[in-house]
Design a protein that fits this description.
Blueprint lengths: L1 E3 L2 E7 L4 H16 L6 E11 L4 H13 L6 E14 L1 H13 L5 E4 L2 H13 L4
Parallel strand pairs: 2-3, 3-4, 4-5
Antiparallel strand pairs: 1-2
Helix pairs in contact: 1-2
Length: 129
């Protein structure tokens, strides 16, 4: 995971267990802490192989996403980019979309990096987000 201006870029290759999600959450918290107070950011996550995970891992991801509402910076979007065939994509994308919707952050699924980045930059440029 890296911070690229107002975009935090991540990559994951599932299936995911709760330990992997916890490690992701710790690193995400570090990167979000580097966003200036009052700043806005978008997460772009590249997903490969699978996005399947057991219920405890989904609960940990939900907790990580919800914790981002409490900080001084504001997440205004999330994009998941499918890298090749991803097991569980159609089944689980609505689940992650709902997790982000709970904190009023739009999440979109993409098949390519360029489209995800263009969307992220558009969301960052919007003052209503």
């Amino acid at each position: 995971m890296v911070k690229d201006g107002a975009i935090i870029r991540a990559a994951g290759a599932g299936p995911f267990n709760v330990e992997a999600v916890a490690a992701y959450a710790r690193r995400m918290a570090q990167l979000v802490a580097g966003v200036e107070p009052g700043g806005r950011f978008v997460v772009i996550a590249h997903m490969s192989r699978s996005i399947l995970a057991p219920p405890d891992a989904w609960a940990a991801l939900d907790a990580s996403v919800r914790s981002r509402r409490l900080g001084p910076a504001r997440q205004v979007g999330a994009a998941w980019v499918r890298v090749g065939e991803v097991e569980g994509w159609a089944l689980m994308l609505p689940k992650i979309t709902a997790i982000y919707a709970a904190i009023d952050v739009p999440l979109r699924g993409f098949d390519d990096e360029a489209a995800a980045t263009a969307w992220a930059l558009d969301v960052l440029g919007s003052r209503d987000s």
